[in-house]
Amino acid sequence: MYDELTAVDIRKMQEELDHRIQVLRPQLIEEVQTARAFGDLSENYEYKCAKQAKNRNDSRIRYLERMIRTARVIEVAGAADAVGLFDRVTIYNEMAKKEMEVRVVTTLRQDALKGLVSKESPVGKALLGKRVGDRVPVEVSPAVKYFVEIRRIEKGEDDENMEISAY
Description:
Layout: E1 4-5, H1 7-36, H2 45-70, E2 72-73, E3 88-93, E4 98-105, E5 116-118, H3 122-127, E6 135-139, E7 145-154
Parallel strand pairs: 1-2, 4-5
Antiparallel strand pairs: 3-4, 3-7, 6-7
Helix pairs in contact: 1-2
């Protein structure tokens, strides 16, 4: 399966990848070599920490390379009166009996605590393409389903200041 990402997502990942390869990797390799020089590796905490940081960086590099290689670039165009990617949507959750605002984003930028829901999430899938006044079922699992009502749609655009997820 391919991740559907925007051109901005790809560019931000490439920038992070370049930084990790050109700046962080040499620094981390030097830290490992410096810590190794402290002596006995079996009790060398600095060495273990430096090695761990280097391995985390290498893992993130592999992740970014795979994401860029397998991504399918999508356009951020949608109907003027329907929910689309990067739109802010005010919904009324009938089960929780409260109104909330969410923004539909790509998987790479999701952060539920900030109200950024992925277009692949149950809420994101349910909202895309719907209009103000629609009562939409959100299916979390075959056993769990609730309804939300779309109260307002504020059209958005791909914001380059929005960070990509760390993992």
